[in-house]
Write a structure and sequence with these properties.
Low-confidence stretches: 1-23
Strand order of the largest sheet: 8-7-9-10-11-15-16
Number of domains: 2
Shape: globular
CATH topology of the largest domain: Rossmann fold
Largest sheet: 7 strands, mixed
Number of strands: 16
Distance between the termini: 44 Å
Number of helices: 13
CATH architecture of the largest domain: 3-Layer(aba) Sandwich
Strand content: 15-25%
Helix content: 25-40%
Amino acid sequence: MLWRWTGAVVMALLVAGPAAVLAGEDTPIKIGVLGDQSSVYSAAGGRGSVEAAKLAAEDAGLVLGKPVEIVSADFQLKVDVGVAIARKWYDEENVDAIIDVPFSGLALAIAEMTKTRKKLALFNAAASSELTGAKCSPYVAQWTYDTYSLGHGPTSGLVSRGENSWFFLTNDTVFGASLEGDATAAVKAGGGTVIGSVRTPTGATDFSSFLLQAQSSKAKVIGVVEAGADLATVLKQGEEFGLKAQGQRFAALMATIDAIHGVGLKDSQGIIVAEAFYWDQNDETRVFAKRFYERMKAMPTQVQAGAYSVVNHYLKAVKAVGSKDPDKVMAKMRELPINDFMSHNAKLRADGRVLRDLYLFEVKSPKESKAAWDYYKQIAVIPADKAVRPLDQGGCPLASQ
């Protein structure tokens, strides 16, 4: 079997699909969570994203008179497998919207599919800013973050504090290249310099040669463009090499709290991270975190919180429209303010990007932490108008509509 599937049995990998079949209003809303359930990004999203989507569906109750159906699949970090699953879902399984997708290359392929199929792709995990740039689609939303916000957030703050020479350890993917590019632009715009960078394979177990290059660069800041288990491995091995002890600072540009949990505070203390959500920010986030923890025995990441948020808002729009009609639903999603535990009057823009604040955190020391999962102290809020790329700079044709 070429992929794992929850909620349906797949008999063969499709390499081509029929014309999109429009689901009738007599079928329930069906949402597909397409994620990594078995590899380096599984703790950041994985089953947690599925459970977060289910929580949102349960909270919504009946939609168009029926319970919402959540299905999920593991694309195994293979774009061709993910494309085939998405095609099967859209064309044959009456899936109305796909969420999650922690792989920008796959997300871009799915975004292209939405244009002809008129099905929705609501990405809470995919990061490439191209999704709301030149390759935008009227049926796509980028919900939680993008490489522009993640690249500009921590870099601008650190450069302004005098930490102005950078070296990047970058995952060799579309996501990695996009995030390094956005971060490099931010460093240079602030008057800093980028001494060098090195590309790393996904799922590597030994980053020593890459860390030695970063060490020898003498850069003040090592920008880590890694995610999930790869980020955890880099931080652990960086501590073993003594890079922080020698005065170099790590800035994790795509951090999620699961990676910090995996590394531990001893080895991750002092690292700067930028996230759209932290479970212990306020009473609302703590209420959601408690519900999530009861199911997953872990605190939610920003990706998993985003899964709840995007499903919640989508279902509100469907209810308001009284129909699945994708054009009407997307218009309503843009019209309605986004309000939930992680969103406060956020707005879905014409290009598909959600305007939301970004938060800078510093990882606590073991002495500062008072309980399990008490890992971050907030050091800055980057307001949405500063965190998100200006609408007229992305190159999205929808921006002028």
